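re: the backbone from monday

yeah here it is again, tokenized this time
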């Protein structure tokens, strides 16, 4: 193979890669414009962690990437809660909050799965309700810890990332419908 052919191939591959990754950063930038509570770096870095983000060519692809990332996020949060619950010395109030949170996050996964299916079927209303319900699960979990004085939520970081991730899915979903 001639050198120039090799370099043109390399050039085109780089071009494709850069065009594709632009979909992610362009969409994340647009989303942060509409919703200032969404962090641009969080949007890009979290979604980049999903291998499917690399082949995304449209915002619609990114809705799926974001939803799937949220599903796997809800599973890891579930494991974190299980680990926390294994602490025998847990205050009963905190234990009961964590048990509720465990249920909330484990329900969120299948709900998001239904949302993704609805999205694939272009039923955007159902997709929106499902993602909103998942986002609410994080809030409901986090709020419980605030109801009792002196109790600190051990899941604040998890709420923040799961909440943001679903807010990003919702914002992408809105962009798709524009
Ligand atoms: C959960 O995280 C989001 C995003 O960071 C934040 O806006 C929200 O206030 C948090 N929820 C609670 C109940 O603290």
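seq for it, each position gets an aa:
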């Amino acid at each position: 193979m001639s050198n120039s052919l090799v370099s043109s191939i390399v050039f085109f591959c780089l071009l494709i890669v850069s065009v594709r990754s632009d979909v992610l950063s362009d969409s994340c930038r647009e989303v942060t414009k509409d919703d200032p509570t969404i962090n641009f770096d969080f949007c890009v870095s979290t979604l980049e962690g999903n291998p499917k983000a690399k082949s995304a060519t449209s915002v619609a692809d990114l809705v799926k990437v974001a939803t799937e990332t949220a599903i796997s996020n809800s599973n890891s949060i579930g494991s974190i809660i299980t680990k926390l619950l294994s602490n025998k010395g847990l205050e009963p109030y905190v234990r009961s909050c964590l048990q509720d949170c465990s249920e909330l996050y484990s329900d969120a996964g299948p709900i998001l799965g239904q949302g993704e299916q609805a999205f694939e079927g272009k039923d955007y209303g159902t997709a929106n309700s499902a993602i909103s319900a998942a986002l609410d699960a994080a809030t409901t979990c986090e709020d419980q810890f605030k109801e009792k004085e002196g109790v600190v939520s051990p899941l604040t970081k998890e709420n923040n990332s799961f909440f943001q991730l679903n807010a990003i899915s919702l914002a992408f979903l809105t962009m798709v419908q524009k």
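The domain at 3-177 is CATH 1.20.140.40 (Butyryl-CoA Dehydrogenase, subunit A; domain 3). The chain has six helices and no strands.
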